[in-house]
Amino acid sequence: MKVAAGLAGGVIGKVEAGMSSYGTAGIPGTSDPTKLSLSEASDLVHGKKISSVALTQECLKRIERLNPKLNAFITVTAESALEQAREAEAEIQKGQWKGPLHGIPIALKDLVDTAGVRTTAGSELFQDRVPSQDAEIVRRLKAAGAVLLGKLNMHEFAFGGSSVISAFGPVRNPWDVEYSPGGSSGGSAAAVAAGLCFGAIGSDTGGSIREPAGYCGIVGLKPTYGRVSTRGVIPLSWSLDHIGPMTRTARDAALMLQALAGYDAEDVTSAYAAVPDYAATLEKKTSFRLGIPRANFWEELHPEVQTAMTAALGVLAKLTASQQDVRIPTGSEFSGMILVAEAFAYHEENVKENPKLYHPETLRRIRSGAEVSASEYIAARRQLEQIRRATPKIFETVDILVTPTFPVPPPKISELLGEPDKLRGRELLMLRNTRPLNVLGLPTISIPCGFTSNGLPIGMQLTGAVGGEAAVLGLAHSYEQAAEWHKRMPSES
Fold first, then answer.
1. 3-state SS class at 338
2. What angle do CA 409, 441, 351 make, to 5 degrees?
3. Distance (Å, whole) CA 230 – CA 448
4. Half-sphere exposure of 49 (CA within 13 A, CB side)
5. Sheet containing 400-404: which strands, arranged edge to edge?
């Protein structure tokens, strides 16, 4: 584990000696505050019942204890996190509360640029890369008063769905460390699930927020394309990349999205659209009409995924107005071409000059983009625009789509690494149900809906119309209250 100055050298001890006068003692349910949801922790911080310093200290202790097993963090910025926590505490004491993220420990996928802190994208190529500027979403998180704990491990350059390929070693699933946490935001999912932070940032080009969220039993939200700025985030595919929150509850995701969403004039992919009060709409009662796209998404499911989803549909039936089968396009015939072409465009110079600094499998995937001609790429991009413009037709008779997050439970890490020639095929199966929604650019959330017989989480996707984050968050929240799968946390054996 590589850490920024201080964590292994006793910063925690110094903080204990100089902590503020209020911490966690005597607060019901806070003997271990890392088990709180972000919204619960926020309420206590705002009410001056828990110190931001104490929360940060507990997260750093937990990282120190569990990260060697999970490998979720690449860089831990202990000293700056504690400084931010002290600053937040002082502001809150003076009544200068900035909102729900103020004083709350958050972590960032390590492709999000952070000024003065290295941003590696999980690659040896960038292992010493230190940006001079923050990404736009980092600026927004800082403006909201969030405490930034550090940078999270990931599949190299986000080009994979398993998080087994990283210059810093594979990320491990906190429910069973023998298994993949999914990817590419595997470190983000593992960190949130294991209580190392209260929320994390992930990126999603083909499912890299939702698939690992599903595999780790947390909530992962891919907003509408362009809703959250990607400026300052190392790209995989500009046309398909999305940035979003990974949290323990739908309410937590709403609070994080509130800070992240909004137009960025300097980001060419940013959409100019009003940002609603997401948390305020969670309790709004709406009789949603559900669409079930059976073709592609519900086919050849693992029996335990099928069982969990059948039960979930039964719960949703009590919360919504109707259910009907629908068909939606997947874009599988052209989206892969766009992804590899744009990935190659970003990496072309480094691939020529420093090919040995890439993992061989990542290099192979990137180089495949060189085979896409200009005419093929232009035609594919035109098809992408056409399919996105047609999405309103999907929602003429339904409001929200329901699908399994993935067709199969996560595989063991040893199996993925033991058969490298089968790795990409297995990842594409793991990402089968998430990739089409990047093509459509629609807001989609993954929420826990059950467990396999060996204790691994199962996820369900809810997808809304363009700009419909409030709707999917609202139904996700209602489902959580009815099913309560989100309350389970992995053991720490």
1. helix
2. 75
3. 27
4. 13
5. 73-76, 147-152, 105-109, 200-204, 242-247, 219-222, 444-451, 457-463, 400-404, 289-292, 322-325
| Location of structure tokens 């999917």 | 472
What pLDDT sits at residue 27?
Answer: 54
Q: Based on the number of CB atoms within 10 Å of its own CB, is 402 exposed (0-12), middle (13-18) or buried (19 or more)? A: buried
What pLDDT shows up at residue 13?
A: 36
Q: Looking at residue 26, what is its pLDDT? A: 45
What token pair was written down for 422? Answer: 């089968």
C-beta separation of 439 from 205 below 8 A: no
Q: Taking Cα atoms as reference points, which of 177, 178, 203, 206 lies closest to residue 188?
A: 203
Length, in residues, of the chain = 493
Helix (H, G, I), strand (E, B) or coil at 199: coil
pTM: 0.94
pLDDT per residue as tens digits for the range 423-479: 999 999 999 999 999 999 999 999 999 999 999 999 999 999 999 999 999 999 999
64 vs 449: CA distance, rounded Å: 30
Angle between helices 374-389 and 335-353 (to 10 degrees): 140
Ramachandran class of 267: left when φ > 0, alpha when ψ lies in -120 to 50, beta otherwise: beta
User: 307 and 458 in contact (C-beta within 8 Å)?
Assistant: no
Candidate CATH numbers 3.40.50.150, 3.40.50.620, 3.90.1300.10, 3.40.50.720; the one for domain 11-487: 3.90.1300.10
Q: Which residues are known catalytic residues?
A: 109, 184, 208
Query: b/e map of 191-219 (b: 16 or more CB within 10 Å)?
Result: bbbbbbbbbbbbbbbbbbbbbbbbbbbbb
CB atoms within 10 A of CB 374: 8
Closest CA to 219 of 36, 471, 457, 467: 457
Contact (CB, 8 A) for 443 and 257:
no
Q: Which residues of the chain have pLDDT under 70?
A: 1-30, 493
Where would I find the beta strands (DSSP E) of 99-224? Answer: 105-109, 147-152, 200-204, 219-222
Neighbouring residues of 433: CB distance < 8 A, sequence distance ≥ 6: 207, 296, 297, 403, 404, 405, 406, 407, 461
Start-to-end C-alpha separation, the chain: 20
Of 194, 249, 211, 222, which is closest to residue 459 (Cα–Cα)? 211
Backbone dihedral region of 490: left (phi > 0), alpha (psi from -120 to 50 degrees) or beta? beta
Map residue 489 onto helix, strand or coil.
coil
According to the 3-state scheme, what is the secondary structure of 437-465?
HHHHCCCEEEEEEEECCCCCEEEEEEECC
